[in-house]
Amino acid sequence: MNVFKHLFPNRCRIGNAKFFYTASRISFLHTFADPSVQVHSQEQEVVIALGSNMGDRLQNFHDALQLMGKSGVHITRHGCLYETAPAYVTDQPHFLNSAIRGVTKLEPHELLRVLKKIEMSIGRTDGIRYGPRPIDLDILFYGKFRIHSDLLTVPHDRIWERPFVMAPLMDLLGSAVDSDAVACWHSFSDSGGLFESWNKLGGEPLIGTEDLKRVLPIGNHLWDWSGNTSVMGVLNLTPDSFSDGGKFQSVKAAVSQVRLMIAEGADIIDIGAQSTRPMASRISAEEELDRLIPVLEVILGMPEMERKLISIDTFYSGVAKEAVSKGAHLINDVSAGQLDPDMQKVVASLNVPYVAMHMRGDPSTMQNIENLQYDNVCKQVASELYSQISNAELSGIPAWRIIIDPGIGFSKKTEHNLDILMGLPTIRAEIARKSLALSHAPVLIGPSRKRFLGEICSRPVAVERDPATIASVTAGILGGANIVRVHNVKDNVDAVKLCDAMLKWRKSSA
Fold first, then answer.
1. The pLDDT value given to residue 12
2. How far is CA 208 from CA 110, 213, 226, in A?
């Protein structure tokens, strides 16, 4: 006989609701005048763990997410992506692991049947326990319930001993408890809450070891951004960009500049065919593509680009789709989806990383007085950026494909830009209140040659701001930036190397 238990700490009760289980449904009974009135429970919050170490692991994850969505699980949050050493049976390939949080009306055993069907459709067959598998889907939590049956135990009975499960589970939470269900999940731990259980297991210091790496899929590899800062070189194909407008409009000039930036140490080339300087006039997606595609096609064929990445700086979904179809690796959207309502859904379908930047308004209005009003710029940027990247998640872009950019120089005064450069840890901490996964996302900063540097250093000419750029990049990296977007690659690469060396020394000597 199935046994279904609900845990009843005070913080997990809702009014006078009482819960009971039958083989066919979960219901709860409120206190009504007519005791026969029953109200069936609605959607339940669930957490489902994912693992894969056979075949195309990322495609297996993508297929599983798509099938869950079609089968009655609405995914609301994603954990980070981890590459992990195998446990228990160690003679097998490394796994990818993550977890999702969602809502479903499926009852627990029905949800289990759905997940097993998805596993089979992706190619899982009976094999050795803890052995290789194309996909593994486990129910970690189901609403506020404990479940014990011949087929299902919830919470999953081995959560607490597995770092590869606990790490993505923690990502689905915020540092602040956001629902009654989450409060109950904390209460299921015998160690005083999930955070305490995670710390007892080893916690954040486990991340970055050979056994547990937080990674972002980009191009044909998994990027562990914790080791070295990446340098993104700027290629403007526009006639009116503030720093180098008109210099690289021809294919020949653009290719020559890319060769120079690669030789100087750029890891990523960010190509923009639409100016986003203050007061810039917007061009159509068609005109943007006319500028972009001829250059992109040639750059993609350059032997120097092997193991390098191409980013497309655009806020148009049509440009993003065409560029990725040609071979671009990631999309850099200064509007975080605000200027094209289709952008985030399109990027979700492309399976590429998405840089979401904070900006109020658009390039023609971002420096208007109303867009420059902040009480606490770091906290407000974090809150507004969280709202935009949360929408990206709901549109289907997993947290493990999101890169965040606080938008230095975009709808910011000089003092705001300084606050951001010194306040990256505050921005991460504010996002962490709502989502630890999104707070762990790589951070990109782009202070290069911006006007505020000229104001501070009395350098009205943009190309004379490179020394100030190096100083701002240094401050940003030491504050937690993972990618720096710059025009002068050579000198900033040296600054990056020094900052990385200092950070590694501090970590090794701690």
1. 53
2. 37, 5, 7
Predicted confidence (pLDDT) per residue in 234-244, tens digit: 999 987 655 55
| Half-sphere exposure (Cβ direction) of 4: Cα atoms closer than 13 Å | 18
Shared domain for 143 and 202, answered yes or no, is: yes
Please say which residue of 215, 249, 277 terminates a domain: 215
Say if residues 212 and 84 touch (Cβ distance below 8 Å): yes
Specify which residues 331 forms β-bridges with. 312, 354
Q: Catalytic annotation on 101?
A: no
- Assigned domain for 303 exists: yes
Among 452, 453, 489, which residue's Cα sits nearest to residue 469?
Answer: 453
Amino acid at 355: V
3-state helix, strand, coil in the chain (%, to 5): 40, 20, 40
Q: Say how far residue 421 (Cα) sits from the centre of its chain.
A: 21
* pLDDT per position as a tens digit, 434-484: 999 999 999 999 999 999 999 999 999 999 999 999 999 999 999 999 999
Q: Three-state SS across 441-455?
A: CCEEECCCCCHHHHH
According to the per-residue pLDDT averaged within each range, which of 35-49, 229-243, 336-350 is highest?
336-350
- Choosing from 321, 450, 451, 465, the catalytic residue is 450
Give the span between the Cα atoms of 195 and 198, in whole angstroms: 5
Q: Is residue 179 domain-shared with residue 88, that is, in the same domain?
A: yes
Residue 220 lies in a domain: no
Vertex 274, ends 271 and 280: CA angle to 5°?
140
Question: Cα separation of 438 and 244, whole Å?
Answer: 33
Report H helices in 189-330: 194-201, 251-263, 285-300, 317-326
Our count of domains for the chain comes to 2
Give the separation between CA 95 and CA 187, rounded to whole angstroms.
Answer: 29
Q: Say whether 301 sits in a helix, a strand or coil.
A: coil
Report the predicted TM-score, pTM, of the whole model to 2 decimal places.
Answer: 0.90
H helix runs in 104-250, sequence order: 108-121, 163-171, 180-188, 194-201
- Residue 89 near residue 128 (C-beta atoms within 8 A): yes
Residue 124 a catalytic site member: no
Residues 174 and 261 in one domain: no
Residues 235, 283, single domain; the answer is yes
Continuous segment of H or E residues that includes residue 47: strand 44-52
For 68-195, list the strands marked E by DSSP.
Answer: 73-78, 81-84, 95-104, 136-142, 145-148, 153-154
